[in-house]
Design goal:
Blueprint: E1 2-3, E2 6-9, E3 20-24, H1 31-45, E4 50-51, H2 62-68, E5 97-100, H3 104-117, H4 122-135, E6 141-148, E7 151-161, E8 164-172, H5 176-191
Helix pairs in contact: 3-4
């Protein structure tokens, strides 16, 4: 779902982390009305939801208005703005095959790797893969997996919006070199 100033998703799952606003770009005068519309939408759907926000880029009153609507800040995520002109391939990079996930079977494998890295259940892994499959694999979301010896060793996602590209879901099998590889590949995709 999308309003002019935010992108949100609603599932049939009773977990707030998979229902809610995943991106917003609100001006001060839009906050109260937008939060009200989103709150009403999820109340009608009868599912819990969350609002992913980047504290440094959101209007100051957003947190206060979200709290009035029953949402409280439990996690603070940081972001960064990156000039990609001078990004170079990591010196410690492993030779990996980087693949863009193109079908549900690959997405299930991708989600399994991500869920293992973040210690999520197999049920969540399957649910997350099905959710992302419903959102679509041909934009604005793209999911990458790094392959070594025909095994998935790292994952990453990128969301393209009119405001820029956003990197998510970076995970690895306990090898920081793989994280460097997948992050570099996501940045190259953002530049394309």
């Amino acid at each position: 779902q999308q309003l002019e100033n935010c992108l949100f998703v609603s599932t049939n799952c009773n977990e707030p982390v998979v229902n809610g606003v995943i991106y917003s770009s609100l001006k001060d005068f839009e906050v109260e009305d937008t939060v009200e519309k989103i709150s009403q939408y999820f109340a009608e759907k009868k599912v819990p939801y969350c609002w992913w926000s980047e504290v440094s880029s959101e209007p100051v009153q957003l947190q206060e208005i979200l709290e009035k609507n029953g949402l409280f800040s439990n996690v603070i995520l940081t972001g960064m703005i990156l000039n990609t002109d001078n990004v170079i391939k990591p010196k410690n990079a492993e030779e990996l095959e980087i693949v863009i996930v193109s079908n549900k079977e690959e997405l299930l494998l991708w989600s399994k790797m991500l869920s293992e890295a973040y210690e999520c259940s197999e049920d969540f892994s399957n649910f997350f893969a099905n959710l992302l499959n419903e959102v679509g694999l041909n934009g604005p979301w793209y999911h990458l997996m790094g392959m070594k010896d025909n095994k998935i060793v790292c994952t990453g996602s990128i969301l393209f919006t009119d405001k820029g590209a956003y990197i998510y879901n970076v995970s690895s099998t306990k090898n920081e070199k793989y994280v460097s590889n997948i992050t570099y590949a996501l940045i190259q995709l953002a530049k394309a």
